[in-house]
């Protein structure tokens, strides 16, 4: 199937371009309207089946290539193959990533996938297709996915970029589609394009600031000073006992070190470390008396001149999932590692 196969595909491409060029804001003031220097667009594409998927994505890629704009695709494996087959030789000009691998932890998508690509082209507009939510996502992962989609709007303020996010309306729950309407200012489907009347990304961030899952028979250690040897040893022992593969155990130790250090520096001077399991994950949990006020903490790429602040970024990079809950009295972060191969 070719890139411009049919009238519907040409129309879909025109709709995406109209979103990018409209410069409008429909969120009741949660974000600023785009100016000529703030051309960020973040539409959701609602699709049913392979034909509608290609109708909404191929013209987007075609328009980017025609304009000489860098384009990246980060979607689940089956859809990646669908696009690769449809693009043929043109796929060589597109950065293509399997989101089930690159974005397994939703908390690292902004820094490593989206900003990673956009920042490699600092003086050019970029187009990205990002599909972070698919039917195989677990209930444990979903709150982090919804917050990720909401945070894209903050992370790309002022950037000349368009990020198109496909949603499979046949496979995903209606509540997921409702959340997508709240995290994307513009919605595209087979009927056309429209401004979202439910756009409220900050509300989504707050709504999914949920209490974290309980751990099964956790071991605990209170860290009150700079010596983290005890916490690291306990993390290693518990990870090995739980069945974390050997090559991932050093990552567990690293995460415990970074989480505890972050609490000592920014969370009131103590860190309650809890280590246990939930389902098929081994979990490193650290709780402190601080309040995390920056929802993008750990989700921005680091800069060469940056003196510190890389700890949370590193945690997101090596963990299979990171969940955070904060309230007026405390912050709790859980880093999850899959058990077994």
Descriptive report:
By secondary structure, the chain is of the alpha/beta class. It has 2 domains: 7-207, Rossmann fold (3-Layer(aba) Sandwich), CATH 3.40.50; 216-338, Heat Shock Protein 90 (2-Layer Sandwich). It contains 11 helices and 13 strands. It has helices at residues 7-22, 49-66, 77-87, 99-102, 109-119, 142-155, 174-183, 201-207, 229-242, 249-266, 311-318, and strands at 40-41, 43-47, 71-75, 95-98, 126-130, 161-168, 186-189, 192-195, 216-223, 271-278, 281-288, 321-327, 330-338. The strands form 2 sheets. Strands 1, 2, 3, 4, 5, 6, 7 and 8 form an 8-stranded mixed beta sheet that branches. A 5-stranded antiparallel beta sheet has the order 9-10-11-13-12, with helices on one face. α6 (142-155) packs parallel to α7 (174-183) and α9 packs antiparallel against α10.
Concise account of the structure shown:
The chain is an alpha/beta fold and 341 residues long.
Structural class: alpha/beta
Number of helices: 11
| Radius of gyration, taken over Cα atoms and rounded to an integer in Å | 21 Å
What is the CATH third-level topology name of the largest domain? Rossmann fold
Which CATH top level class of the largest domain fits? Alpha Beta
Task: State mean pLDDT (0 to 100 scale).
Answer: 90
Strand content: 15-25%
Any idea what the CATH architecture of the largest domain is? 3-Layer(aba) Sandwich
Main beta sheet, described? Answer: 8 strands, mixed
N-to-C terminal Cα separation, in Å?
37 Å
Helix and strand sequence: HEEHEHEHHEHEHEEHEHHEEHEE
Portion of residues within helices: 25-40%
Query: What is the count of structural domains?
Result: 2
Q: Classify the oligomer.
A: single chain
- Report the strand count: 13
**Globular, elongated, flat, extended or rod-shaped: what is the shape?**
elongated
Uncertain segments are 1-15, 21-37
Keywords: Kinase, Serine/threonine-protein kinase, Transferase
InterPro entries: Anti-sigma-factor_SerPK (IPR050267), HATPase_C_sf (IPR036890), HATPase_dom (IPR003594), MEDS_domain (IPR025847), RsbA-like_anti_sig (IPR047718)
Pfam families: HATPase_c_2, MEDS
Protein name: Anti-sigma regulatory factor (Ser/Thr protein kinase)
